[in-house]
Amino acid sequence: MEHEGLITQWLNHLLGQTVTALLAAVGITVEPGHALPDHFVTALLILLVFGAFVLWLKPRISSDRPGGAQQICEFLLTNPTKFGIRDLLDDNVGHGGREFLAMTGTVGLFVLLCNLVSVIPLFNSPTGNPSVPLACAIITFCYFNAMGMKHHGVLGYLKTFAGSNPFLAILLFPVEIISTTARILSLTVRLWANMFSSELLYGIFLGMLLMPTTYLLAKNVFFGALSGVFPATLPVAFIGLHIFVAVIQAFVFTVLPSVYLGMAVAEEH
Amino acid sequence: MNRKAGLVVLALALATFAAPAAFAADAPAGGTNWVAISTAFGMAIAAAFCGIGQSRVASAACEGMARNPGAADGIRGAMILGLVFIETLVLFTLAMIFLNVK
């Protein structure tokens, strides 16, 4: 926590007054020294670093002689294993899928990087704090509804919730509205709970393995140091699990918006 | 037309914001903490049914991969996706514990 806490402390020192004043103007009170939370600063850092990387990459993009970085980024788009972002959009949305590529890809990549950043020793995932997945879910919700309304018109989009049978529309409409609105909750909790629980699992097993070490260190430094091998090596398996869960959850957070987009712009037969 | 669409989307977003924040009921001072007991039982039941559900997914995937080794990659992808969604339901219950239990 020190390193990330240092960046947060520095930013709070720099911008604390401004941020507190701005938030007070909107009606939110925060503690004066801690206006900017850790997860916000980490997410901002990810944004800046990845933005710098993209700005570095852009002039180096070439069709004739692609470099390594360009090929890696192209793998994210389209993949022999059919799990690239553009492949997912083509599968789930069909025809007009590629116009949604920018938004879906950005949210998916942001979630992936936020999930993976906690592998770096002194960082916590921003997605482990419930507000970051909530923000991603709200943006996705607003986006797929806006795209649905753009495609069908506002009334036409609302009519798609009524189903094809006019007699069942009374029953179906509220159910569809509720289930569409519940997508925010499910996207948020899925991402947050997975990240939170995998970090928690790592912390729990690290703590359990540290108990004999701390006990033995008090008794006998040699055996304590010897048993320190276990907490140093075994939790790596949980870091591996965390990486696996992080990548899968980022994938799910990309597949689901593309499915929702496909459902929003779908034409009735 | 774009402005009207934008206003409707804004109204929908505000309606979802208007839902009150989650709050937990306080246990009576010195009484039994029913919230903790019930969420623990809820978590156990959720984990049990998750185990049953995920075992069905995994066994169907294994059987499919055994019958058709060429489709193994696609089946594996579908298996992972299925497992993730079932696990999510259990994690909803876990989130309930962290939100409700003092």
Provide an overview of this structure.
The complex is a heterodimer of chains A (269) and B (102). By secondary structure, chain A is mainly alpha-helical. Chain A has one domain (74-264). Chain A has helices at 2-26, 38-57, 68-77, 85-93, 101-116, 131-152, 154-160, 169-219, 221-227, 229-233, 236-264. The mean pLDDT of chain A is 87. The longest helix of chain B is centred in the middle third of the chain and has 34 residues, at 34-67. Residues 13-24 of chain B have low confidence and may be disordered. At the A-B interface, helix 6, helix 8 and helix 11 of A face helix 1 and helix 3 of B.
User: How far is the first residue's CA from the last residue's CA of chain A?
Assistant: 55 Å
Largest sheet of chain B: none
Q: N-to-C SSE series of chain B?
A: HHH
Overall helicity of chain A: over 70%
Order of helices and strands of chain A: HHHHHHHHHHH
Sheet with most strands of chain A: none
Number of domains of chain A: 1
Number of domains of chain B: 1
Strand tally of chain B is: 0
Mean pLDDT of chain B: 81
Strand content of chain B is under 5%
Could you give the distance between the termini of chain B? 50 Å
Total helical segments of chain A: 11
Tally of individual helices of chain B: 3
- Uncertain segments of chain B of ≥5 residues (pLDDT<50)? 13-24
CATH architecture of chain B: Up-down Bundle
- pLDDT under 50 segments of chain A (min length 5)? none
Question: What are the salient characteristics of this protein?
Answer:
heterodimer, A: 269 residues, mainly alpha, globular, B: 102 residues, F1FO ATP Synthase, 3 helices, 0% strand, flat
